[in-house]
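Q: Sequence in, structure out?
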Amino acid sequence: MAKPYQNATSICIILTIIAFLGIVLGIVGSNPLITIIFLFPTVIYEVYRTEGKSTKWASWGLLAVLIAEVFLIVANISFDLVKFLNASKETISGYTIPLGDIKVVGPTVMAALSLILFTNTRGRYTKWLAIIIFITSFVIVYTLDPAIFEELLQLGIKEGLKQIQ
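A: Exactly. Output:
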């Protein structure tokens, strides 16, 4: 059964503002934890709104990854995937992904899960929330490692151009 949407527009507007504040404060303070904390309400509302099997799975996955990301940052756990895998990039499903610290993997997974939510739902509010999460995930990557962010951005542009052609 569809979730009520009488206040959904107002809630999504408020969540957009909260996420935007988290983005600004996270970038200004060079602190991804601020951005992550400000993203929690959006992800929690996304968990509430989703109903389908794949979207429910993706939204709960987002919440789990967000919690794990907080743990990695607060505990200051660093694990260099480049040294572990003996490669600077890894190809997954035909996409070459730049590697670095394990903390960068979380927001990259969040961006992928938000794409699943965006493409697999018919609900406009779930799509709206997925866009907030997608954009914020890239900002988290940027605050964690600007070099990896640049590589992901270039990869995204290349893949987008392939899709256009």
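The chain has one domain: 11-164.
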